[in-house]
Amino acid sequence: MDKLNLDDIFSDPIFDELIAESPNREVKRIDPEFERFKEIITWIKNHGGKEPGKSRDMTERKLYSRLKGYRDKPEMIKKLAEIDELNLFDSKNIVIENPMKNPESLDDILNDDTLFGSKEKVDSLLDLSRYKRTISAADKYSVRKRASHFERYEPLFKLAQKEIANGTRKIVPVDTEKNIMPGKFYIDNGILLYILSIGDYYIDKNGYRNAKLHLIYENGTENKGILLRSFASNLFDKTRHGRMVTEVMSDVIGETTVEERSAEYLTTGYIYVVKSLSSNPEISKYQNLYKIGFASESVEKRIRNAENEPTYLYAPVKVVATWEVQNFNGRKLETVLHHRFADQQLQISVPTANGKFENPKEWYIVSLEEIEANINDIIVKLNI
């Protein structure tokens, strides 16, 4: 075959086809709402014509909420009508829901369709990426636990609350991290707390001064591992309404401490005297038969199950006298009283539910006046 020159090439009909402009290809854009609506149609076809309902299955519930959202919007009904092959927007299928009300139980929350009202909400609910930072930063936080020996600190909170109420202390904003110190009260997220101690200061990996705090909360919990920087960020967080409680001047200048002053109000328990309401003639025949006991909490709580306890002779009792014990071991006071009335102790055996016998030792045949006189005598000697 002879070689072709340029004129031969340009005059060849095939060359005209090669250089001819290709017609612009129409790009068809897919509306995402159409695709989401088709997903509903496909689901219904795969389930024998049944519409998606309020199910615990996430996919079905998501499609149910999406369909409901479309039916609530006339503009969406108009937009999707051209592909509504199952007549899902027929008027008889459109249901108007009851007005929203506050949930009262977990089932109410699970039945709340607005939770799955849009794809964005569902995607956000299932998106776990935002938790990665929380997991990786877990070492910055610690957990509150039930405070051991909270009875030691409860008087501090009672005193602080009393002094806040009478104006001795003020609640003020925290202006600087330097005001976070041991022995002071703060309010974090509405809960009064006390800094029991601050560990050794150190420079953390971000170059900031940090330390481990031991916090006691008025609700009986404690946190032994929270870091100073984390606690400070809580106090400065406007959504948590962090505040500082001012100190008492006598504590600031060193004349007193909050621990010393709170000791004036330290209640260790209650001495109580009760009379048996038993119908047993061997018990009811005694005119001056009383039980002398001690309760670390309320007396009413201690005796509420009296008819089921051998120490109360399996019978209800009536409280005839109580004494609040402050700044003294109430259990020791009870022991002293029992020793004083040892000669007047009732000797009795009570059958228990398992067929054995118990010998309650806190019942005494003695007048109420004599009990009161001995308690007063002990209190006077303790105060000398």
Structure description:
The structure is a single chain. By secondary structure, this protein is α+β, with helices and mostly antiparallel strands. It has 3 domains: 32-124, no CATH class; 141-262, no CATH class; 266-383, no CATH class. 35% of the residues lie in helices and 17% in strands. The protein has 16 helices and 15 strands. It has helices spanning 6-11, 13-19, 32-46, 58-71, 74-80, 106-110, 119-126, 130-136, 154-165, 228-236, 249-252, 258-262, 281-284, 299-303, 330-340, 368-383; strands spanning 145-146, 171-172, 185-188, 191-198, 202-203, 209-210, 213-217, 221-223, 243-245, 267-276, 289-295, 317-326, 350-351, 357-358, 363-365. Helix 3 packs across helix 4.
Question: What is the gist of this entry?
Answer:
The chain has three domains: 32-124, no CATH class; 141-262, no CATH class; 266-383, no CATH class. Helices cover 35% and strands 17% of the residues.
